[in-house]
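Researcher: Sequence recovery benchmark, item below. Answer with residues only.
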């Protein structure tokens, strides 16, 4: 299982890369392994305002469908359109293939997320 240092992680298995007031978000390697072969991704619209821990999309695999939750509240400024046509990119590399980028409402919410080391611990339980 791959975990990238320098990112923040949620208990729902999303990762967050922070650049200024922007948060780029995707699912973790752990999540894509648990889902199996991903066949469909639904993403929000640019301009959507989404609350912390609210569902912002859906990932469907041959095994199951899972809601994806936003670890920080904000407004969607970019979506990864490539995932709509090629959802299997998440299986290829979950960290290279981000899902959304949001302008954060409250960067202090990042303090509630886990470091790579803390996230690795919950994945081993």
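Model:
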């Amino acid at each position: 299982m791959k975990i990238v240092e320098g990112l923040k992680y949620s208990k729902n298995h999303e990762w967050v890369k922070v650049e200024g007031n922007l948060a780029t978000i995707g699912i973790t390697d752990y999540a894509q392994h648990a889902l199996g072969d991903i066949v469909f991704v639904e993403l929000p619209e640019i301009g959507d305002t989404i609350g912390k821990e609210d569902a912002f999309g859906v990932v469907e695999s041959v095994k199951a469908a899972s809601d994806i939750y936003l670890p920080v509240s904000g407004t969607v400024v970019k979506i990864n359109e490539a995932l709509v046509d090629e959802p299997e990119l998440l299986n290829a590399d979950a960290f290279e293939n981000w899902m959304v980028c949001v302008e954060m409402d409250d960067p202090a919410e990042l303090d509630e997320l886990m470091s790579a080391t803390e996230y690795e611990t919950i994945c081993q339980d």
